[in-house]
Amino acid sequence: MGESSSELSAQVGVAIRRRRKALERTMQDVAQEAGLSQPFLSQIERGLALPSMRSLDRIAHALGTSAVSLLSSGQTGGHADVVRVTERVGLVQDELDPGSNASALTPANRQLRAIEFTGGWREFQPYSVHHNDEFVLILAGEYVADVDGTHYELGPGDAVSYAGGIPHRYRIVGAGPHRFLAAIVGDEFDVVARGDQLASLSTPASRAINRSCGDLSN
């Protein structure tokens, strides 16, 4: 069965607290490095709040680990996890427009991470870069994908994939509904670079950002 939001919050909180104590670090120290308030980190560790994917990545970085490692529960084979449509865990995406949402299609203890996004942006947002390869399948509506400066028009049934480290972003076109599936293996969709941070990457898009700059921000 799929995990409820409360179960996922509890799992994440326990993992963060266990890792922090193993490193003998204070909550204040970790919160400060992750750019979060201590009360909020306290709520996360107690399972009372579920951090956004961006915040979880910051916490993982502060603890010298990855979001995947924090989410891993150590479950092994012998069973299948079924995530019913009524049991999907809604994810907080800091960059989504109002009215858009994202929900997890795979449980947090799996290396394969699949997320369904509905809605999207009318205008391109700053580029994102992930650690590992990403696969996207358009389920409904029209999208334009900008992958390292090259634009691809995508419609229902079209799929696109690219290697980790490649800057990418999407925008919606025309009337809705708009919906797509994104999947990554061994990654928690954590953004490793965004906007002008891409200047450190040797790709055409990052070099263009490095030259023109300033208009893409976190």
From TrEMBL:
One GO cellular component term, please give it.
cytosol
Q: In its keyword annotation, does this UniProt entry include DNA-binding?
A: yes
Q: Name one Pfam family in it.
A: Cupin_2
The terms under GO molecular function for this entry are:
DNA binding; DNA-binding transcription factor activity
Recorded superkingdom: Bacteria
* Listed PROSITE patterns: HTH_CROC1
Q: Which of UniProt's keywords are assigned here?
A: DNA-binding
Tell me yes or no: is DNA-binding among this UniProt entry's keywords.
Answer: yes
Q: What stretches pass through the bilayer? A: none
Q: Which InterPro entries match?
A: Cro/C1-type_HTH, Cupin_2, Lambda_DNA-bd_dom_sf, RmlC-like_jellyroll, RmlC_Cupin_sf, TransReg_Diox_bact_type
Sequence ranges assigned to domain HTH cro/C1-type in this UniProt record = 16-70
The name on file for this protein is: Helix-turn-helix domain-containing protein
**Source species:** Frankia nepalensis
